[in-house]
Write a structure and sequence with these properties.
single chain, 168 residues, alpha/beta, five-stranded mixed β-sheet, 5 strands, 50% helix
Length: 168
């Protein structure tokens, strides 16, 4: 079984690539791209995020990178998150939503972004949508039967068919 991609827009835009490509051809008044990528661990999110960010000039926001940065810099949020992590607990939704929403708002209202690694729960998704609404979701739908060894190659091959084929 080959890995598949599901492009699921949350706005009136029909697919991810046309929405992203529109930014190059529109003149003023275009919709800000607020995207997130979701999928199982090992499904190719990092690889595909890099392509999307590179090709469509989006800001890449990684929840893991942000959290590590705050911990390393010793910010209030970083110290709070580290206390949970050191106890073996998950960082609470409220803390994570605050971190992500603050970062996304800090990019400005005109910046296009791709969020990676967040949300992980329904309450996080609902809170994110209230704070900084998402209008594009890229869901990497990799079947359970696809083994870890063939997973990245399968995801990349299928993505090239959809992604590169749409750009021609």
């Amino acid at each position: 079984m080959v890995a598949g991609l599901l492009f699921r827009p949350l706005s009136s835009s029909p697919l991810l690539v046309p929405l992203l490509a529109r930014r190059s051809f529109s003149s003023g008044g275009r919709e800000q791209i607020c995207a997130l990528i979701v999928g199982a661990p090992g499904s190719g999110k990092g690889t595909i995020s890099n392509w999307i960010v590179r090709d469509f000039k989006l800001q890449h926001v990684s929840s893991g990178d942000l959290l590590r940065d705050h911990i390393n810099r010793g910010t209030n949020l970083g110290r709070e998150a580290k206390a949970f992590i050191d106890r073996g607990d998950l960082v609470p939704d409220k803390v994570m939503v605050g971190l992500i929403a603050s970062e996304l708002k800090g990019l400005g209202e005109e910046a296009d972004w791709l969020l990676d690694g967040f949300p992980r729960t329904l309450p996080q998704a609902e809170a994110l949508q209230q704070e900084t609404p998402v209008n594009v979701v890229v869901h990497l739908n990799v079947p359970f039967q696809v083994g870890k060894v063939e997973l990245p190659d399968a995801a990349i091959r299928f993505f090239k068919v959809i992604y590169l084929g749409t750009l021609r």
